[in-house]
Amino acid sequence: MNFRRCAVLFFSLAALALPAFARVTRIEVLSHQTVLNGQSFGAAGAYEEINARVYFAVNPADPHNTGIVDLDKAPRNAAGEVEFSADLYLLLPINGGNGSLLLEIPNRGGKGILRIVDGAGPTPYGDGWLLNLGYTLAALGWQWDVDPHPANLRLYAPIATDHGHPITGLLRDDFSPATRTTDWPLSHINLGRVGGTEYPVADPNAPQNVLTVRDDPYGQRQIIPRSQWSFAKTDNGEIVPSDRSIHLDSGFQPGRIYELVYTVKDPVVAGLGFAAVRDFAEWAKHPPLSNLTPAGVTVLAPLGNVQRVYALGISQCGRFLRDFLYQGFNQDEANRMALDGILAHVGGAGRGSFNERFAQPSRDAQPTSSVDYPTDIFPFTDEPEPDPANPSAKPAGLLDRAKAEQAVPKIFFSHTSYEYWSRAASLITTTADGRRDMPIGPNVRVYFFTGLQHFSGPFPPQRDVGQIASQDLQSPLAIRWFWRAMIANMNAWVRDSVAPPPSAYPHIADGTLVPLNKLAFPAIPGVHPPQNYNEAFPLDFGPNWQTTGILTVQPPRVGAPYNVLVPQVDADGTDRAGVHLPEITVPLATYTGWNLRDPSTGAPNERPAFLGSEFPFAKTALIRKTQNDPRRSIEERYATRDEYLSRYEKAVDDLVHQRYILAEDAPALKAQGIAEWDYYTQ
Asked: What is the reported pTM?
């Protein structure tokens, strides 16, 4: 019997009783098909694509689960366990694969790693790089509040009650519209889409329901009279009562920050998302081997020869993985390490609202929205450090629990230039007071990919991408090649004990990490560097909120900021430290980690979320002098096209030698260099 048939048979027989193991109780297949009609991918052979639902059960009294907020208030089955489930997407190699499973943590329910790593193409599988290497791919729902689109993966978790009575509390929703509107959903809007739906209003007339407006993140809040707004939604042009949206008679103005505090009820046990990732990873490595006798068939391990699990998380999900480690979820109920490797990308110094009462997992920390949510909170570094806001407290680090449980995986923390400006990334490698560099642990690498923005923009560069309009062209530098090398390096590190490339990031000691007022950005005509950046603050949401997970003060009390720093730049305005793409080493433009909002969206002095900038060099010395541009022109840097390409190709070869880029990807990077020369010199 081939692997594909065995795998599907296993899932099809999921209704049969299986011994509890790693707390996955059963998996139900919703659909399955062979990939591209059975096309073979290298030694891995054909792949099976499966959409399924995983069912879990956890013991609330087990020490590995007691940190899940409100788990003790969730309904239980006859065995005294709490049941929940999650959506699952799988790509299974028929021949068993290379023994490594890549577990994607979906960003707001959506899958993305296959598109990012293998690239877009005529099929969803791109160039098939991951499949040709025999990786098993999985994506597991962990977030309860994702938009209910059929393609999104979500967590189905129970509601907590107080002995059967509803639990109520305060919630906060803030937003900054890009256009004038009279109605706004009670949702976290991310890139123009609903990233997370909120709880329903418990009492529309409660005195705690307060709407305010301000002009910048730390400006004075102005209360909007209750008579001027209502909980409502637009339905065929008419305003009708609702508990899931808000209506303002005078309209919400673009660029202003609105904040609603209101009463809600029925908290979901959101922290079960951590347990889902932990227990699925362990089940994948240690599945039950059972003789299911109805058909007289021995069912094989359902995911093939999975020996290692690497979790991949981008942005929100990079923060999820940082919090997963901090809250001690990398050891399962059998005291085994769940994740062998973690690749947490563009998460900055953050964690998130993933395991608390009335959790809002989609909330992050953007320049003009999601302000002062429990995202960038101490501790930030993997090694223990003191908290300047609480000098009497014991030093703490992100990996304290994992170390105590001997469950520290191999870890890559990777960032772009954007995270240093808008995600407090400097705090993961400095003391919280910003006075000195901190060491990083032996199982950790920190990679700073210079000049990139939060997500890769298109080439040629544009000003309006993904419903975000900016004043300046957005950075088009691609992350894809770094991702492929990171996956290969992580697999070699865990499987073969081959150390990955050294960390590369800015330091205080060598002057590549500085306070904003020390930034030496050149005076490029028409370019206005931002006058602020995202800071991190001690936040007080009420008594013992960090230990109980119950937030009773909204908005929180805000303390003195931790000292966030930014990368120092060279004469062109490009960040000096980090891993440099050829476009940085042999430049035709300046690339930054910041941009400014297009004036049409309001607040033109503020930074838009996620974006960097690109400022092309003048083509000739004459143009440069006419424009008063202090940066050397393309003509002054490169005598000929051949000289540029020769230097560009050497920069690619150097990255390959350093193992930040794979040799097989060098031709694609070199071809990009030709396209960029032609574009910037045309």
From this structure: 0.94
